[in-house]
User: Which sequence fits this backbone?
């Protein structure tokens, strides 16, 4: 009887693990970390709230640089590849070089709700921790992509409970991908898109990337150098221009200063370009990077380490490679979805992807 139970348990675990791009044989450069996820950077935690009730196809994602129990800031930098989108808190990142709390991602019309509810949640936990909040101010980082094709975006379905769920469920370890969190209702290269992640070991350091991908035209899609989009040409709106967006979050344990983190965010554009995207006029392609190596507790004078610029090339490589793979992981992890007004977006077919890769010797 014991053997039967163990076998059944193994089957259930196997069924719970969806294939990722590497499992389908997609070739990538570089060496991933243990989880091949942004959580391979020690301290980083990811949490979700996924809403699929009625006509809602949306959610919230929270990415904590130092875990949900930390009050410490992190050095950060950001970059706008194309600014038809929103990422709050970036003016202060540009000014101070630091960010407070998590990076949160949702749909376009729920940015305000997520921002306000995070501040309320943060105030409450600071009071419980015995901190004085009389002069508390907060400029959290909340980003968005538009999910109005599948989601009733004007129904404002994201509520306080969903923000709290994403914040408090955050954990290290493997990260779910596809139709989860803020990526629930997203579309990528006219296939079902969503949330994806990957990581790379860069010498003694690690770089991890998380994406909420909602960008690209079908004809553009290129995977491992193969014109997959041209081989699978039928999209959901072939006559429309590029109106999608992508949020890219980069984490590293390398001791980088804010200007170096900005340099890292710009390399994410190259990973995106490998997929064929060109960031059209209607696209909101906004990227943020943070380091978990500093700055530590506040004091009048802080001494922080800095990686020499001459040693940044492996991190540039890692960011490009992990960005590329994270987007493909989002596509592979997504599942066909029907949403508002019975609109349906199909997932990237795994079998056809493998056939096309074989056709081109990849």
Assistant:
């Amino acid at each position: 009887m014991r053997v039967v139970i163990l076998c059944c348990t193994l089957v259930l675990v196997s069924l719970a693990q969806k294939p990722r791009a590497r499992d389908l044989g997609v070739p990538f450069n570089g060496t991933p970390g243990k989880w091949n996820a942004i959580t391979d950077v020690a301290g980083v935690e990811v949490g979700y709230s996924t809403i699929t009730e009625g006509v809602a196809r949306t959610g919230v994602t929270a990415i904590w640089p130092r875990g949900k129990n930390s009050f410490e800031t992190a050095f950060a930098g950001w970059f706008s590849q194309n600014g038809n989108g929103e990422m709050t808190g970036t003016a202060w990142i540009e000014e101070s070089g630091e960010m407070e709390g998590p990076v949160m991602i949702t749909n376009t019309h729920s940015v305000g709700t997520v921002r306000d509810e995070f501040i309320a949640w943060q105030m409450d936990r600071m009071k419980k921790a015995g901190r004085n909040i009389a002069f508390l101010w907060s400029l959290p980082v909340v980003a968005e992509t538009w999910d109005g094709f599948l989601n009733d975006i004007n129904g404002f379905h994201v509520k306080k409970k969903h923000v709290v769920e994403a914040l408090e469920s955050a954990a290290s370890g493997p990260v779910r991908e596809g139709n989860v969190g803020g990526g629930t209702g997203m579309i990528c290269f006219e296939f079902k898109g969503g949330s994806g992640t990957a990581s790379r070991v860069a010498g003694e350091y690690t770089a991890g990337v998380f994406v909420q991908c909602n960008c690209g035209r079908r004809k553009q899609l290129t995977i491992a150098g193969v014109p997959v989009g041209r081989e699978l040409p039928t999209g959901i709106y072939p006559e429309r221009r590029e109106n999608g967006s992508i949020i890219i979050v980069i984490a590293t344990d390398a001791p980088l200063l804010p200007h170096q983190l900005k340099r890292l965010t710009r390399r994410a554009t190259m990973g995106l370009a490998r997929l064929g995207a060109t960031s059209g006029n209607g696209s909101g392609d906004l990227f943020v990077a943070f380091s978990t190596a500093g700055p530590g507790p506040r004091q009048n004078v802080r001494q922080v380490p800095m990686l020499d610029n001459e040693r940044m090339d492996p991190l540039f490589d890692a960011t490009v490679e992990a960005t590329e793979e994270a987007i493909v992981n989002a596509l592979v992890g997504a599942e066909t979805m029907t949403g508002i007004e019975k609109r349906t977006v199909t997932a990237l077919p795994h079998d056809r992807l493998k056939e096309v890769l074989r056709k081109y010797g990849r």
The longest strand covers residues 74-83. The helical segments are 2-16, 90-96, 111-128, 160-168, 228-231, 258-274, 313-333, 350-359. Residues 313-333 form the longest helix (21 residues). Residues 79 and 287 are 5 Å apart (CA to CA).
